[in-house]
């Protein structure tokens, strides 16, 4: 298998995974947007690539969200957002639009520093977990 | 003339590391002290013309030693060596008259550089001697204590930056406990108060553990006020956000610090709200006792200007510690 094939296989895996993956650069421009994000938002990677996150997703509370992301840059550490403090960051429909209890997908989000080969943080990764079921059970 | 030097640190492990990093060709005799009171005794005995001083210690801490020295004329200069990397700790120490502040973990060459800079050491001036009564044997628990000490300083610095407050660092407690005694491990929380807790699992190199962050309800409300406009939602959501923020900041920083020193890359999972407004005993009451004993690293942070106190409890089950022990064996083995 060539290196390209291997890379392709890895990227398909990242695409198929049932979690949202977004990568943001220092200016909040979207560098990666996986299939999960595309499927739930209706926005294709080509539509969001290099665009500012808040322009693509105006439902995000920008002032608040920036503080969370800046903390990743400042502390070089992970920051977590749970559905209990804020039910969702991205306004996505519940993944079962008919039988789901809530209207919107309840989300846990992990923001993590991404490092270059010298160990310096150069991007922030966002992982979105759909925790609607968990939230329904807890209520 | 042979210089008399006292190493003052409550951690045997730390004294041992420091001793190892002193230049062998230094015309000096080295004494040891476990806390500030012993250090002052050494000074009175004329055994500490130079004091290498840790800050966070039981009985009498490093700040108190410096205050004492500032008030009483003594033939003693002090270099502070501490894991408390908050800018305010540095400023306090320098105001109190310390020569220098060396941050833990330090590099071996750093100590000799400072000594040379202050004219305390010339290469090949003699040889380093240990005062005869010195006995330094360290075990794995000592290693964990010192490693926790350094990691705690880094986590405290992160919290201090986010809350914009000086954090008082404690002496971490590292002990084997039975899971049923968890609540007894928490020394800085008033057991009569209602508490909230967040749990984060963590893993690295097959070593799995759990980090619990506990805050009293009054502390949660005070943190909420300090974070102010950084929080969103209604009061209850703000409480959870404050709790989650504190928990994930100290857990991430502490695990980073621990991992860095132990050469394990720990990754923490999403925080889980264990409970709110509960009695400590109820919160920590586990129905299933899977483990006979766990290694508990307890760190109780205090914000002196506020009523805020919170406790970080890093718990490692027996099998995780077995793996860790192998990882650290070379630290104390000769």
Automatic annotation (TrEMBL), chain A:
Chain ranges of the PAS domain: 8-74
SUPFAM superfamilies registered for this protein in UniProt: PYP-like sensor domain (PAS domain)
InterPro entries: PAS, PAS-like_dom_sf, PAS_4
Protein name as catalogued: PAS domain-containing protein
From TrEMBL, chain B:
Protein's recorded name: Response regulator
Entries under PROSITE patterns matching the protein: RESPONSE_REGULATORY
Modified residues (4-aspartylphosphate): 54
Species in which this protein is naturally found: Idiomarina fontislapidosi
PANTHER family in alphabetical order: PROTEIN-GLUTAMATE METHYLESTERASE_PROTEIN-GLUTAMINE GLUTAMINASE 1 (PTHR44591:SF24), STRESS RESPONSE REGULATOR PROTEIN 1 (PTHR44591)
Gene3D superfamilies listed in its UniProt record: 3.40.50.2300, CheC-like
Residue ranges occupied by any Response regulatory domain in the UniProt entry: 4-119
SUPFAM superfamilies per record: CheC-like (SSF103039), CheY-like (SSF52172)
CDD domains with a match to the protein in the record: CheC_ClassII (cd17910), REC_CheC-like (cd17593)
């Amino acid at each position: 298998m060539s290196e390209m094939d291997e890379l392709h296989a890895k990227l398909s895996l990242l695409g198929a995974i049932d979690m949202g993956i977004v990568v943001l650069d220092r200016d909040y421009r979207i560098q990666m947007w996986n299939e999960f994000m595309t499927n739930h938002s209706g926005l294709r990677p080509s539509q969001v690539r290099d665009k500012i996150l808040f322009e693509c997703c105006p439902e995000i509370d920008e002032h608040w969200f920036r503080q969370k992301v800046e903390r990743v840059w400042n502390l070089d550490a992970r920051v977590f957002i749970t559905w209990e403090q804020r039910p969702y960051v991205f306004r996505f429909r519940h993944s079962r639009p008919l039988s789901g209890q809530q209207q919107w997908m309840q989300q846990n989000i992990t923001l993590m520093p991404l490092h270059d080969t010298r160990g310096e943080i150069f991007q922030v990764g966002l992982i979105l977990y759909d925790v609607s079921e968990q939230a329904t059970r807890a209520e | 003339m042979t210089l008399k030097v006292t190493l003052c640190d409550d951690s045997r492990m730390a004294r041992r590391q420091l001793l190892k990093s002193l230049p062998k060709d230094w015309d000096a005799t080295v004494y040891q002290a476990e806390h500030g009171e012993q250090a002052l005794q050494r000074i009175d005995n004329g055994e500490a013309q130079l004091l290498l001083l840790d800050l966070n210690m039981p009985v009498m801490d490093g700040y108190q030693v410096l205050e004492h020295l500032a008030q009483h004329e003594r033939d003693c200069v002090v270099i502070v060596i501490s894991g408390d990397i908050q800018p305010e700790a540095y400023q306090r120490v320098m105001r109190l008259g310390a020569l220098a502040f060396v941050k833990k973990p330090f590099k071996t060459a750093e100590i000799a550089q400072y000594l040379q800079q202050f004219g305390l050491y010339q290469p090949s001036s003699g040889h380093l001697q240990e005062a005869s009564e010195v006995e330094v044997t360290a075990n794995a628990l000592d290693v964990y204590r010192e490693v926790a000490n350094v990691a705690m300083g880094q986590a405290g610095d992160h919290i201090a930056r986010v809350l914009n407050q000086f954090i008082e660092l404690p002496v971490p407690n590292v002990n084997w406990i039975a899971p049923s005694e968890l609540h007894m491990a928490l020394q800085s929380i008033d057991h009569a108060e209602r508490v909230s807790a967040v749990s984060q699992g963590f893993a690295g190199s097959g070593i799995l553990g759990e980090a619990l962050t506990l805050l009293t309800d009054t502390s949660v409300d005070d943190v909420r006020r300090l974070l102010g406009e950084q929080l969103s939602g209604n009061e209850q959501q703000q409480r959870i956000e404050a709790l989650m923020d504190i928990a994930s900041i100290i857990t991430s920083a502490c695990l980073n610090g621990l991992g860095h020193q132990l050469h394990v890359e720990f990754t923490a999972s999403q925080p889980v709200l264990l409970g709110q407004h509960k009695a400590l005993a109820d919160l920590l009451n586990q129905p299933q006792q899977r483990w006979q004993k766990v290694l508990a690293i307890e760190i109780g942070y205090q914000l002196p200007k506020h009523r805020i106190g919170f406790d970080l409890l890093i718990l490692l089950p027996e099998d995780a510690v077995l793996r860790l022990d192998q990882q650290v064996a070379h630290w104390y083995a000769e």
